[in-house]
Amino acid sequence: MPEIIDPAAFAGLDPSKPIVALEGETMGTTWRVLYVGPDAPDGVQLAIKALLATLDDQLSHWNPASRLCAFNRAPAGSWITLPHHLASVMDTALRVAAVSNGAFDPSIGALVDLWGFGPPGPKPTPDDAAISEALAVSGWRRLRWDPAARRLRQPGGLSLDLSGIAKGYAADAIADLLGARGLVHALVEVGGELVGRGVQPDGSPWWVDLESPPGLNVEPIRAALHGIAVATSGNYVRGAHSIDPRNGRPSDNNVASVSVLAETAMLADALATAWTIAFPNDDFRDMNVAARIITHADSGAVEHLTPAMARMLCM
Known about the structure:
The protein is of the alpha+beta class. The chain has helices at about 40-60, 65-75, 85-100, 110-115, 130-135, 165-180, 265-280, 305-315; strands at about 20-25, 30-35, 80, 145, 150-155, 185-190, 195, 205-210, 220-225, 230-235, 245, 250, 255-260, 290-295, 300-305. The chain starts with 18 loop residues before the first strand and ends with a helix.
């Protein structure tokens, strides 16, 4: 259960109101929205599609015309003014990079491409020299960020990749759009990252099961998404694609999946990515983040709960 229940969420509840379902595709994955409100979804769906198109134009490393790709092509020493959404994501991305000691790093586009997980497609396993070369042009500490002016400095050859945070931000952005239209009770999912606002018509929260790797005997955990979000990162869908930004190689720490509950899906997404890399030597436990980490073991799987997650399960 969430630690804070918003009494205002229960004001004016009408059990007779329908739950409207919408869905579509974005960022190479799918999105789905459930919201409580009048059954007039056409305008809402168009607004969501327009928002997602804007996010793709700003955040995508697969779209050569995106503002992110324009930054990646910018000359060394250039200060680039970022549009609103890209600036918001970069601000959080750099904060998480700092607190995770680089386990999460938005600047690993060159490494992602080198290992065949980016737009260029599959590639042979790189040798040490190629990895060293990609590491030399990567690294969040090479960036300079001016949040007041929304300006980011391209140090030269650095390639941003926001795939570990963009889907979470998209879920938050859709929930914000719905709220601005008076649709304050909603569950939003983008590529498996979820955010819940308000409650269902009967007053119950938006219940979701934390995603678990198939084939592992793990007890299910059901979370009440009421003003909180959940994101899951793992290697069970696309194989070992989680690259450790600190050494330029896929992580080999036996982590099957990490689920994080946080106040925003963007933060949960980034922290889940970081924990997938850093566990068990994570130096950011004191962030009081609710997380479930599932690791491979000879017996099948081992579940690890952070203290914050254990407290939520006891509420």
